[in-house]
């Protein structure tokens, strides 16, 4: 067979179901090999969209997502997606084409060193120079991509190597079982928690990577620990739970931070240094137990006193067998804070002004969706409000990025989520700025005949930066723009457009779009004018005495 056939068979051997991307002339052998394979090619309208989609496969399945581009400008468009996957810990393989490397008559046309370019943003990057190396390179790359911490890998397939004849087979796929922590490490963690007066559980990004919901909820039920989550830890345990306090959507000063400050020992589950820290450690302050797959990366604000390393689900179950609620635990203040947080955050409906206040918009979205619906958030001011006010009922039902925090990912991520979950409601929530960065993928969604809703929050400016600008005492300058008619824009792709014109209209538009099926875009205006006050001075006053 050709080397490109062997590469495709190796991908099939790894369980790959989709390849996302835009082929170029250097990929034609690979494209022909895909044509007769079991793998489905998802043609996108930009390589960035393909990269986000492949990374989402990694996020939602734990398997390695795969995306494809040509050389030069196609490959350079992968840089943002590779960085996104690197920081967020998402297993994904980037395959790029290249001109012939053994005999070429085109000089340096379109050629840059893609392997070297990919080095800082991947965990493995190689050019395939010999067709016989394909089986071990694929197996090694997939193994590295899935190992904790998961991340991106890259293979470059030159045009002449792709066409080489080869007589090899894919390597056998092995799935090693990760070890648990030692009994001494588990006992010490249990002793620290039982000796505490005000223990607290913090659930972070790593908990969502490893499907730990059952183990986490067993730990919570058996110990009675109250818990908080980071943005990327949302949903790892059901947020309707009576012990759930809130999400650290802000860096500090929110109701949930009063709970963190009250704790004397924190069990930090799945901490990831790439995410904004949910708390800052100080010498002589609260003690922290680091429970994760890999040792803590120490810095000035994170230096845990004890570490429990290994399979997080297994370690959580082991701790649940050892720890019992202690007679000297004082959890009354957490219970009081729970009542306040429920009232002020989780049950907050927002006011009736129009355009929407962010809390009201979040309330209408949550009210319209099924319990297991998936919300894909692009990056903008609304992400803070969804992280804070939207209750996630299960793992990866709120897909957000609090690591690279790039704009433009919301729609491609939603497309991949719907491909993988055709029977569940999927809604992309995008600001007008972020939506327009990859809005061309509307055509991809329509062509794939998806049932998908895209909610575009219109403000005609970059709202998050305006909020920071105002908070820094700067003049309002340089961040406003004009938008197309989003309803007509959606219809030009063959989607259905809606424009919300009143309070309550968003919930009804969402229900209508979800019932009808097909691709829908809903434009809803949003008003962030009160955010500086609501998330600043007013919030500090409310929380100052708790």
Overall mean pLDDT stands at 94
- In total, how many domains does the architecture comprise? 3
* Beta-strand segment tally: 18
The strands making up the biggest β-sheet line up spatially as 2-1-3-4-6-5
Helix content: 40-55%
The CATH superfamily of the largest domain is identified as Thiamin diphosphate (ThDP)-binding fold, Pyr/PP domains
Q: List the total number of helices.
A: 23
CATH architecture of the largest domain: 3-Layer(aba) Sandwich
Q: What best-fitting shape do the alpha-carbon axes yield?
A: globular
**Main sheet attributes: strand count, strand direction, barrel closure:** 6 strands, parallel
Q: Which topology of the largest domain does CATH recognise?
A: Rossmann fold
Q: What is the SS-derived class?
A: alpha/beta
CATH class of the largest domain: Alpha Beta
Could you tell me the strand content as a percent range?
Answer: 15-25%
Beginning-to-end CA distance, first to last residue: 69 Å
- Compute the gyration radius: what is it? 24 Å
**What kind of assembly state do the chains in view correspond to?**
single chain
Low-confidence stretches: none
Word description of this protein:
The chain is of the alpha/beta class. 40% of the residues lie in helices and 16% in strands. The strands form three sheets. Strands 2-1-3-4-6-5 form a six-stranded parallel β-sheet, sandwiched between helices. It is globular, with a radius of gyration of 24 Å. The model has no long low-confidence stretch (mean pLDDT 94). It has three domains: 160 residues, Thiamin diphosphate (ThDP)-binding fold, Pyr/PP domains (Rossmann fold), CATH 3.40.50.970; 159 residues, TPP-binding domain (Rossmann fold), CATH 3.40.50; 188 residues, Rossmann fold (3-Layer(aba) Sandwich), CATH 3.40.50.970. α15 packs parallel to α22. The longest helix is centred in the first third of the chain and has 15 residues.
């Amino acid at each position: 067979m050709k080397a490109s056939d062997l590469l495709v068979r190796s991908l099939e051997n790894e369980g790959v179901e989709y390849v996302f991307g835009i082929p170029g002339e250097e990929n034609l052998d690979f494209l022909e090999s895909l044509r007769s394979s079991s793998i489905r090619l998802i043609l996108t309208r930009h390589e960035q969209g393909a990269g986000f989609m492949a990374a989402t496969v990694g996020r939602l399945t734990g398997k390695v997502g795969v995306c494809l581009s040509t050389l030069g400008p196609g490959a350079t468009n992968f840089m943002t997606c590779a960085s996104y996957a690197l920081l967020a810990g998402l297993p994904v393989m980037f395959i790029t084409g290249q001109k012939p490397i053994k005999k070429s008559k085109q000089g340096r046309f379109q050629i840059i060193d893609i392997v070297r370019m990919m080095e800082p943003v991947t965990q493995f990057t190689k050019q395939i120079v010999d067709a016989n190396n394909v089986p071990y390179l694929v197996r090694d790359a997939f193994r590295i991509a899935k190992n904790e911490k998961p991340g991106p890998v890259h293979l470059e397939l030159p045009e002449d190597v792709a066409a080489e004849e080869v007589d090899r087979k894919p390597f056998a796929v092995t799935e090693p079982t990760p070890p648990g922590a030692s009994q001494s490490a588990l006992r010490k963690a249990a002793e620290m928690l039982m000796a505490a007066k005000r223990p607290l559980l913090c659930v972070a990004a790593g908990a969502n990577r490893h499907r730990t919901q059952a183990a986490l909820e067993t730990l919570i039920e058996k110990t009675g620990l109250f818990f908080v989550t980071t943005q990327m830890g949302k949903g790892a345990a059901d947020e309707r739970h009576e012990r759930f306090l809130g999400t650290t959507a802000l860096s500090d000063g929110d109701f949930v931070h009063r709970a963190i400050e009250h704790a004397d020992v924190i069990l930090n589950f799945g901490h990831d240094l790439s995410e904004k820290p949910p708390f800052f450690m100080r010498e002589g302050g609260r003690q922290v137990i680091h429970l994760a797959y890999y040792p803590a990366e120490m810095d000035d604000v994170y230096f845990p006193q004890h570490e429990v390393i290994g399979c997080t689900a297994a370690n959580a179950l082991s701790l649940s067998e050892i720890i019992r609620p202690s007679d000297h635990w004082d959890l009354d203040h957490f219970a009081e804070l729970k009542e306040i947080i429920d009232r002020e955050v989780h049950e907050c409906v927002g006011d009736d002004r129009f355009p929407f206040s962010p809390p009201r918009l979040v309330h209408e979205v949550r009210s319209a969706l099924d319990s297991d619906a998936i919300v894909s958030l692009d990056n903008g001011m609304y992400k803070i409000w969804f992280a804070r006010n939207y209750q996630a009922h299960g793992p990866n039902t709120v897909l957000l990025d609090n690591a690279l925090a790039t704009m433009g990912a919301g729609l491609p991520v939603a497309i991949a989520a719907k491909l993988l979950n055709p029977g569940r409601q999927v809604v992309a929530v995008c600001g007008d700025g972020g939506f327009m960065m990859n809005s061309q993928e509307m055509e991809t969604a329509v062509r794939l005949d998806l049932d998908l809703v895209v909610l575009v929050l219109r403000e005609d400016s970059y709202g998050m930066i305006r909020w920071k600008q105002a908070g820094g005492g700067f003049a309002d300058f340089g961040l406003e723009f004009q938008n197309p008619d989003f309803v007509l824009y959606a219809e030009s792709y063959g989607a259905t457009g809606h424009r919300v014109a009143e309070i309550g209209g968003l919930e009804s538009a969402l229900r209508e779009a979800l019932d009808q099926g097909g691709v829908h875009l809903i434009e809803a205006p949003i008003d962030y004018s009160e955010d500086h006050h609501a998330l600043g001075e007013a919030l500090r006053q409310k929380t100052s005495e708790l």
